[in-house]
Amino acid sequence: MPDSCVLFARRQRIRALWRPLLLLALMLALVWWFVDTASEQYRWQWYRVWRYVGTWDEEGFHSGVLLEALGVTFRLTVVSLAFSLAWGALLAAMRLASSPVARLLSSLMLGLLRNTPLLMQLFMVYFVAAPVLGVGPFTAAVLSLGLFEGAYIAEIFRAGVMGVPRGQWEAALSLGMPVGMAARLVVVPQALRQSLPALAGQMVSLIKDTSLVSAIAVADLTMRTRVVITDTFLSFELWLLAAAVYLVLTSLVSVPARLLERKEHS
What Å distances lie between residue 148 and 91, 172, 202, CA to CA? Predict the structure, then answer.
């Protein structure tokens, strides 16, 4: 029986790994079919694209504007994710607090952030708050993305905490743990495991939402792609390349999260 359980868990992990890889292969095959079909009416010029990614010479590799823009997108994603997790945890704690004032303030903040478009929030932060705070476009983008995504993460955290059985609280308190220690050592780890799938989905949403920051002059991948298209008129090649980069970035989040989720349930 133990050997069969180990074999079943191994098969589940392999299946969890191969499903997203198979989906990625099918998507690449579809893109290849589209490119091959469209080549009858459109002359692809990929050779003109790669110099905007990077070039090699006698001194070594030199990154192009698109690779530099990818670095901006990556930094923007990491910093915004850290801020959104902290902001979401704070809002979730306020929602679960015993103080009616804290619950009211968090409810108003969640309603404001979740019921207005992200693009509008970007404009408000960049044109109204940023001049007062004395910050640039990158910081304004981080604030907007962190506040917006953190509002959704707060509800994910709150649902995860409420999903932990009340008996876990009672067992921890009966052992003499203070409330803070019981929450940190017993409740929060269980809540995070339950919230993992939703958190992974929200992280993927954050990566895709970074494309909107080009509206406030942040030189991310989307903005640089549009500039290069304006100079070269290579719309199909550059947008396909940008879409492939975003697909890889989101896969770096969703695939490990799915594997970890399967490991927790195995």
Answer: 12, 34, 11
Dihedral angle over CA of 27, 31, 34, 38, nearest 10: 170
pLDDT tens-digit readout, 135-172: 999 999 999 999 999 999 999 999 888 888 888 777 87
Predicted confidence band of residue 1 (pLDDT cuts 50, 70, 90) = very low
Token duo for residue 77: 């994603």
Q: Is 238 exposed, middle or buried (0-12, 13-18, 19+ CB in 10 A)?
A: buried
Every domain of the chain and the residues it spans: 1-42, 44-254
First to last CA, the chain: 15
Query: What is the pTM for the complete model shown?
Result: 0.81
User: Measured between alpha carbons, how far is 245 from 240 in angstroms, rounded to an integer?
Assistant: 9
**What's domain 44-254's architecture?**
Orthogonal Bundle (1.10)
Non-local CB neighbours of 68 within 8 Å, separated by 6+ positions: 219, 224
